[in-house]
């Protein structure tokens, strides 16, 4: 894809590894992210995809390896915040339950920008509008909003900081199908309008195909395949990627292929 | 309002595994009555897999649980639910126990919480048979045989092990073995593969399909995933806000959906193959029956709604290859 | 894995006992001013006697050497001589042990039977019965044992003359008879909490999915209660029992005083009033030790009733 | 009773299943009762009908009469007057315990949860060790060391209850900080201190308030027990516990009047406080679950 080839690199992860006690969660993962592109991180539970996401935003520190933001000037927690923001899976606990959505949106603006109260509130209204929430919904407490609305609000809050990168950790997995589609369309439009880059962590290949330009496939903490999304999905090279693709339900689903794919993968493990 | 229980064995032999007709459920919450289901009808024939598809609030779980007489507390229930010839609504406690022990069983979403964590798997597997009065030795033999069937290595040893010693996928196989242990005529699978990883889901679905085909039992497969239902099931019933909005052969629903909601659901799913099409999401959020508008519950979200949609609840009627509850079905092909 | 668990739990128990020993020994040294004159206030002592006492209590040594000396004797189960009774602390305790042990076990049995029974009934019968249960347990939790003791004394000992008002009886049968009112007083003040905690535990199991699954399989109600609800609550039950025993032991200080029962609890109260430190230290160590031992046993038994603990490796 | 203290530890972790949205009649009645007791104790010197130590020998051990509304004790002292005066110490001492314990316990629990690592381990271990001492034993030891009175036992009880508050605050904070909004705030650039003070603490404050209330009730029982044993409040001062102790001889003569009112005073006050504390902790668990 042309847009992912031309942009400058905004994020470079080199040899990322994470050990929890004696288990290896992430093992020597490297990738880079170009401005305006969207990188899918695909894997099943235990693949290390979420831990990788948390290392990018600084919620976990790598046991070895590094996360760099080429061309970035800020440093420390606040500096990193201007570079990268994160959306979590669980929309129900993404907000402090005691404060309204609008207050929650204003909070980071106060921390990062030296703006007047009026300017902050104008910006909050703008952000709410951008994600399709009304002013009335902005004035509400989080618990009165639905999961989809809260996830929109979380996106608005992240956008307010104007980061270069947005990390989305299974951000649409907990939503109903019809709501998931709304949020995916919103995310796609935002990236097109703002030129922001995404790291989109997901187990859902169809969603990843829709929202990303490039993809890495992770299994047991390692990257087993990487490339442009369309290419990887159309012509997967690694047996695990093939198994993942064959496992997605569809009419005329060939479950025998899944079984053979699993056998192939298991025999590979034994020979290696 | 309440049909009498038809319990004769002759009727049972000929009866369909599941026959729900006109099922309405209303619960009392804080002194207010809140409707959950409105005149739901569906059936599962012997040897058939029927997919029950819907988003949150659609009432799909309540519907499937009603087949076992597992109604929510303080519920007023009308209509008829006949399982293998036995009427569930108005059934006595003894009749319900008999039904659950011999005719129908359920597979729940999360295998990790379905199995008592402090007891051995053998206890879980034989519990259903033992409740029916089968002796320990015979129940154990049946259970070991089933474990072999579902692909557990060294089944005799597995009987003595504990749930936490197995992965989620393996545990769901064991739960399936437990559900099949009583030789049910009807299996209810309530989001039975949702909690599993994709590759594990595929394996468990393959297993379910094989066992169902071998035993010829009827299965109601409840899921939010229309594509999974289309891949696995013979027929599909789509529910929205406590009502059935469309039903038909799986291939027909998937290829030629008639109800704008079904069309919207399919348009909401990104595709894995073919053109990377743009999504056409449905506006608004899925509603429960209690918060739905009068008339067609979907009309506020519907792209082709007309004023007439508000006047009455559309009944299911045949339209092309499916039956659909919409006054102007199929007019939305363009979107 | 399991051996590491046992090892770390035993280590924790030993550390706790060690710290308890330091605190209990150190309490003597915390006495403001001169400990010897504080302890012997009211009695006239010659300066030789004072010096001897100072020597005996280890007060003329530094804290560390005094402590190690004391700990050495304690580890040989020698708690020294009572300053009030003159006899050895061991003899004082041994004479009273049977009474207090009987009282604690008696009260524990009553409290557990009533508490668990109420918990099961409340948990399985929501509505009016549960609500009545909550009122009764709230009252139990709010009622001090000495108020119950005095009411029982006034009604059953003084007015109805069904039970003796004081003393601990001779022989086991008579002792149980004498200890009935004290045991009931302890029971009334403790069963409510047992019932409350176990009700919450039972409730949590009753709404769990594996109970729903069992129900969906047509398992009889009694079997669900036995095999799923009560069986899964054995862990909390053991913890409660351990805590209850420790609490009842210190609770005997109150009811033995109220009923004039000549047991360890009453001895503790008397010794505190007279600042008979060797006795106070011995009973304090006993009290902490009882808690440490019972809760360690409960924790160590947990892996055997809940297989998950063996795998996860967490005891708390 | 120190078993009550056990409840503090477990009641907070066990999920309650009762649901309540509006304060029930019971809660309202409890608040009213506590309010009346508190006001009466403050106004006691003004409103007592008799001097608390004035004796009316002719009317000793009497039941309620028009002269003595709640009767008299064995030496003919007016029970109502003594109850009102006794309320001051009976309420102030547990209040002191509750305030100290809550402040220290909250600080330790919050710090342990937020700092984690070795600090958490040391604090948790220390609380485990203190937990091994029954609170009543700590109070008795304090008396053994410092002699009869209330100051030392108040400090000892405050120490003894710290693990109960500390453990519950710690686990509530750990539960709270696992929610994604805490992670979000860290990613947004807020400092850990700011997140703790502005978000975590306010969200667990109801749990803390509930524990403070429950601690008050339990401390009241412990202190009453101490006074009953003659090791707490010393004559001529009186609290409800010492009044109960002084009624023992009358009870042994078959006169139950003298214990009725001081006994009821303790029971009803603790009951009201516990009802209040439980409704607070119910509300919290309800709020935290309805957010799902």
Automatic annotation (TrEMBL), chain A:
<dbReference type="InterPro" id="IPR003593">
    <property type="entry name" value="AAA+_ATPase"/>
</dbReference>
<keyword id="KW-0067">ATP-binding</keyword>
<dbReference type="GO" id="GO:0015833">
    <property type="term" value="P:peptide transport"/>
</dbReference>
<dbReference type="InterPro" id="IPR003439">
    <property type="entry name" value="ABC_transporter-like_ATP-bd"/>
</dbReference>
<dbReference type="Pfam" id="PF00005">
    <property type="entry name" value="ABC_tran"/>
</dbReference>
<protein>
    <submittedName>
        <fullName>Oligopeptide/dipeptide transporter, C-terminal region</fullName>
    </submittedName>
</protein>
<dbReference type="InterPro" id="IPR013563">
    <property type="entry name" value="Oligopep_ABC_C"/>
</dbReference>
<dbReference type="Pfam" id="PF08352">
    <property type="entry name" value="oligo_HPY"/>
</dbReference>
<dbReference type="InterPro" id="IPR017871">
    <property type="entry name" value="ABC_transporter-like_CS"/>
</dbReference>
<dbReference type="InterPro" id="IPR027417">
    <property type="entry name" value="P-loop_NTPase"/>
</dbReference>
<dbReference type="GO" id="GO:0055085">
    <property type="term" value="P:transmembrane transport"/>
</dbReference>
<dbReference type="GO" id="GO:0016887">
    <property type="term" value="F:ATP hydrolysis activity"/>
</dbReference>
From TrEMBL, chain B:
<feature type="domain" description="ABC transporter">
    <location>
        <begin position="18"/>
        <end position="266"/>
    </location>
</feature>
<dbReference type="GO" id="GO:0015833">
    <property type="term" value="P:peptide transport"/>
</dbReference>
<dbReference type="InterPro" id="IPR017871">
    <property type="entry name" value="ABC_transporter-like_CS"/>
</dbReference>
<keyword id="KW-0067">ATP-binding</keyword>
<dbReference type="GO" id="GO:0005886">
    <property type="term" value="C:plasma membrane"/>
</dbReference>
<protein>
    <submittedName>
        <fullName>Oligopeptide/dipeptide ABC transporter, ATP-binding protein, C-terminal domain-containing protein</fullName>
    </submittedName>
</protein>
<dbReference type="GO" id="GO:0016887">
    <property type="term" value="F:ATP hydrolysis activity"/>
</dbReference>
<dbReference type="InterPro" id="IPR027417">
    <property type="entry name" value="P-loop_NTPase"/>
</dbReference>
<dbReference type="InterPro" id="IPR003593">
    <property type="entry name" value="AAA+_ATPase"/>
</dbReference>
<dbReference type="InterPro" id="IPR013563">
    <property type="entry name" value="Oligopep_ABC_C"/>
</dbReference>
<comment type="similarity">
    <text>Belongs to the ABC transporter superfamily.</text>
</comment>
<keyword id="KW-0813">Transport</keyword>
UniProtKB/TrEMBL annotation, chain C:
<feature type="transmembrane region" description="Helical">
    <location>
        <begin position="279"/>
        <end position="302"/>
    </location>
</feature>
<feature type="transmembrane region" description="Helical">
    <location>
        <begin position="103"/>
        <end position="121"/>
    </location>
</feature>
<feature type="transmembrane region" description="Helical">
    <location>
        <begin position="7"/>
        <end position="28"/>
    </location>
</feature>
<keyword id="KW-0813">Transport</keyword>
<dbReference type="GO" id="GO:0055085">
    <property type="term" value="P:transmembrane transport"/>
</dbReference>
<feature type="domain" description="ABC transmembrane type-1">
    <location>
        <begin position="97"/>
        <end position="298"/>
    </location>
</feature>
<dbReference type="InterPro" id="IPR035906">
    <property type="entry name" value="MetI-like_sf"/>
</dbReference>
<dbReference type="InterPro" id="IPR000515">
    <property type="entry name" value="MetI-like"/>
</dbReference>
<feature type="transmembrane region" description="Helical">
    <location>
        <begin position="133"/>
        <end position="156"/>
    </location>
</feature>
<keyword id="KW-1003">Cell membrane</keyword>
<comment type="similarity">
    <text>Belongs to the binding-protein-dependent transport system permease family.</text>
</comment>
<dbReference type="GO" id="GO:0005886">
    <property type="term" value="C:plasma membrane"/>
</dbReference>
TrEMBL record, chain D:
<feature type="transmembrane region" description="Helical">
    <location>
        <begin position="254"/>
        <end position="276"/>
    </location>
</feature>
<feature type="transmembrane region" description="Helical">
    <location>
        <begin position="91"/>
        <end position="113"/>
    </location>
</feature>
<feature type="transmembrane region" description="Helical">
    <location>
        <begin position="181"/>
        <end position="201"/>
    </location>
</feature>
<keyword id="KW-1003">Cell membrane</keyword>
<feature type="transmembrane region" description="Helical">
    <location>
        <begin position="207"/>
        <end position="233"/>
    </location>
</feature>
<dbReference type="GO" id="GO:0005886">
    <property type="term" value="C:plasma membrane"/>
</dbReference>
<keyword id="KW-0813">Transport</keyword>
<dbReference type="InterPro" id="IPR035906">
    <property type="entry name" value="MetI-like_sf"/>
</dbReference>
<keyword id="KW-1133">Transmembrane helix</keyword>
<comment type="similarity">
    <text>Belongs to the binding-protein-dependent transport system permease family.</text>
</comment>
<protein>
    <submittedName>
        <fullName>Peptide/nickel transport system permease protein</fullName>
    </submittedName>
</protein>
<keyword id="KW-0472">Membrane</keyword>
